[in-house]
From TrEMBL:
Alphabetical list of InterPro entries matching this protein: PCMT (IPR000682), SAM-dependent_MTases_sf (IPR029063)
Family listed: Belongs to the methyltransferase superfamily. L-isoaspartyl/D-aspartyl protein methyltransferase family.
Keyword terms of this UniProt record: Cytoplasm, Methyltransferase, S-adenosyl-L-methionine, Transferase
Protein name: Protein-L-isoaspartate O-methyltransferase
GO biological process, one term: methylation
Coiled-coil residue spans: none
Subcellular location, record wording: Cytoplasm
Uppermost EC category: transferase
Gene3D superfamilies for this protein: Vaccinia Virus protein VP39
EC number: 2.1.1.77
Gene Ontology cellular component terms for the protein in this record: cytoplasm
Amino acid sequence: MSGARRDGAGEPADVSAVDRAFEATPRVDFLPPAERHFAAVERALPIGHGQTCSQPAAVRAMLELLDVAPGQRVLDVGAGSGWTTALLATLVGPSGAVVGVELEPELTRRAAARVAATGRTWARVEQAVPGRLGWPAEAPYDRVLVSAEAPEVPAELLAQLAPGGVMVLPVAGRMLQVATTVGGEPTVSEHGHYLFVPLR
């Protein structure tokens, strides 16, 4: 997971809920010991294996665009440090569910332990399957957050999004909000430019 904001942003959906999630989920708890001193700094921080923990402003913007509500089922693609999975768990609450997926095995183990340590038992981090995006076994999801850059909106992830659902992801340097409709084509809106590691 990574993320650096370049310019622009969308309109916030429920800033107060996101603020509460940030307060309840300190970034410092999800960083390697050597990086914890920089937890409040607005930049992506390395977490090993060529991955980073996104800068807080980028994470906040994505969560506001995702517009998560209590009780929803959420997929977190590129869980990285586990921070976004834990933030999403706060937003959905005990009546919801969050599945984070991470490709790097060591990062998966660390993220799973950190999310478990929050006591939010309705959230977990799973080892992603190479060559397969998301976690189709438990689809569809009300919300999908993707913290890695794709060249286009991945059809494999779109297929895991419920009708009326929302996916937020960086595509070719632009932050997109993709909203599905019942029986119609998804609607796509752009919300500024960001830099992320490639989606694999």
